[in-house]
Design brief:
The protein has 131 residues and is α+β, with helices and mostly antiparallel strands. The protein contains three helices and four strands. The protein is 35% helix and 12% strand. The strands form two sheets. The chain has a two-stranded antiparallel ribbon. The chain has a two-stranded antiparallel sheet with strand order 3-4. Helix 2 runs antiparallel to helix 3. The longest helix is centred in the N-terminal third of the chain and has 21 residues. The radius of gyration is 44 Å and the shape is elongated.
């Protein structure tokens, strides 16, 4: 029986070593898959407009652009009243005049006043103020 005990002890130690070896073993490293970068088209340049506003001060014609009118005279024009129905806005990437339907009616009225009172500035001004 003395031989049997060391054999059992050796068998138990072998089993413990095998179990421990299985617990501490590491899995083989996983393959790292990286995606190839895809080529993209260069972004389309969008024109940037630094300023968009009214460039002229008086009259029926409204001009829009980057050179904003800053120093306007106090002189009044018959068409100045109509300008309240027009503005400058960026449309499709460019600075353009945008008008309200009232603008066209006002312009027609002022043009009628101009043709009726072309010799009388006071009457022309009075007429245009009613447009």
């Amino acid at each position: 029986m003395k031989i049997f005990r060391p054999m059992v002890l050796l068998l138990i130690l072998t089993a413990v070593v095998i179990l421990c070896a299985g617990c501490t073993s590491s899995a083989p490293p996983a393959a790292v898959v990286t995606a190839e970068p895809t080529a993209t088209a260069a972004p389309t340049e969008v024109p940037t407009i630094t300023a968009c506003g009214v460039e002229n001060c008086h009259g029926l014609t409204v001009t829009c652009g980057p050179n904003l009118a800053t120093a306007c005279s106090n002189d009044m024009d018959a068409g100045d009243r109509c300008r309240q129905y027009a503005s400058c806005q960026i449309v499709s990437g460019s600075c353009q005049v945008v008008t309200d339907p009232k603008y066209d009616k006002c312009v027609s009225c002022v043009q009628m006043c101009k043709s009726s009172y072309y010799n009388n500035p006071n009457m022309l001004f009075d007429c245009s103020q009613k447009c």
